[in-house]
Automatic annotation (TrEMBL):
Residues 61-258 form the Pyrrolo-quinoline quinone repeat domain. Residues 381-390 have a biased composition (Basic and acidic residues). Pfam families: PQQ_2. Residues 381-402 are annotated as: Disordered. It comes from the Bacteria. This is Pyrrolo-quinoline quinone repeat domain-containing protein.
Length: 402
């Protein structure tokens, strides 16, 4: 009898532990979707983002930590979740809340936009207490509708904000030390591959979202650059985000003081949201003259705009050079996005320089702000940007010099 009593006691304790663990991990959530709508609600300027922020905070939704542009609308990240709003009306499209839970939010990059299925995801991640320590959780949502795509439980080894700092369509990338990248599946939460720079080499790892680093991501690719100071060697490597296999690489300038940086072009990024924008950096000359502009589909050097417009290089530093080993930094993007963003930001910069008359800029590139000010639309609206204004600015600049 005593044996059975002891056994029964053990069972009761085990059941109690299981129940306690389940209770600790349980987090209530509030989820509203936008139905089956595939209509894009892409913010066209930071003005519209800030208008949405003000409207939301005035309704008592709580302080907004960040406004992020996406194909699903203006994303307002709160301390306990996210709300997607129509940037034109301020109306809610979908939301996901985890009350009383601190949440980190990220959005996967887009190489270029399309009207069918842009495959952009919103990633939420948080920790819960556990009898054996904290447990991590990651939820992946469709950016257009807010529908839940994946939900996973995993180790809480990394802080929530580190899990969403570098994302691809299906993975999250986490730095390990100064030479290793580890990839985790958004579907399963499992570690699926690691990439390690050579011995005695290092990668300028990302520490926040506001400064460039030696790691960049596109929809299905991870781009990293490493530097070996003692060997005076540097390399850029592009990896398949699904399996970590090398797709292509390029040598960079090895004799240098700083590790190389990678700039990736994102089709939903706005120019002045605080995050570095590659096309703007090129147009303003912030990258300098020692950079390579690569088509992410195959690593081919892209100089199309400078080839089309004679003498543009006198106003905007062109990419490339005689040999790859002369290049300091790398800019990578989809060919369509390179073409669109560069033209737009070059026009913007030429306006700032006074080299271009605003009357020569096509009407569809202007947007009227709430206070009636005309400003350039700062991400794609689906229409082609002509090169004529750039050519005109170059001609006018030459005339002034003469």
């Amino acid at each position: 009898m005593r044996k059975w009593l002891l056994l029964g006691g053990v069972v009761v304790v085990c059941l109690a532990l299981v129940a306690t663990e389940a209770f600790l991990r349980r987090v209530d959530h509030e989820h509203e979707t936008a139905g089956s709508s595939n209509t894009r609600h892409q913010p066209l300027s930071t003005t519209s983002l800030e208008h949405v922020r003000t409207t939301l905070e005035e309704t008592g939704a709580g302080p907004v930590e960040e406004m992020v542009p996406s194909m699903g609308g203006a994303l307002a990240t709160l301390d306990d979740g996210i709300i997607a709003l129509d940037p034109a009306t301020g109306e809610q499209r979908w939301s996901y809340h985890l009350p009383a839970t601190e949440v980190a939010v990220g959005v996967t990059p887009l190489d270029t936009t399309n009207d069918t299925d842009p495959q952009q995801r919103v990633v939420l991640t948080y920790d819960t207490p556990s009898l054996l320590g904290s447990r991590g959780h990651t939820i992946t949502l469709d950016a257009l509708t807010g529908d839940e795509i994946h939900t996973t439980a995993h180790s809480a080894q990394d802080a929530p904000n580190q899990r969403v700092r570098s994302l691809t369509q299906d993975t999250r990338i986490v730095p390990r030390g100064n030479r290793t990248l580890e990839a985790f599946s958004l579907e399963t939460g499992h570690s699926i591959w690691e990439y390690q720079a050579p011995q005695d080499c290092q990668i300028d790892m990302p520490t926040n979202n506001d400064t460039p680093s030696g790691v960049g991501t596109l929809q299905t690719q991870v781009i990293t650059a490493w530097h070996c100071p003692q060997k005076e060697r540097a390399m850029m490597v592009t990896l398949d985000a699904a399996n970590g296999e090398e797709m292509w690489n390029h040598g960079l300038a090895g004799y240098r003081d700083m590790a190389p940086q990678v700039w990736a072009m994102n089709a939903t990024a706005l120019a002045d949201t605080g995050q570095p924008h590659a096309a703007r950096a090129i147009a303003q000359g912030d990258i300098g003259r020692r950079y390579s502009l690569l088509d992410g589909e195959g690593g081919e050097l892209d100089t199309q705009l400078w080839d089309e417009v004679d003498d543009l290089g006198y106003l905007v530093p062109p990419p490339g050079g005689p040999v790859w080993e002369d290049r300091d930094d790398i800019v990578v993007g989809h060919s369509d996005e390179i073409d669109y963003s560069l033209r737009l930001h070059v026009i913007h910069e030429l306006l700032d320089q006074g080299a271009l008359d605003p009357e020569n800029v096509p009407d569809h590139l202007w947007q009227e702000t709430a206070d009636g000010e005309q400003r350039l639309i700062e991400n794609r609206d689906g229409r082609r940007i002509p090169r004529e204004p750039i050519e005109q600015a170059v001609v006018d600049n030459d005339d002034q010099d003469n």
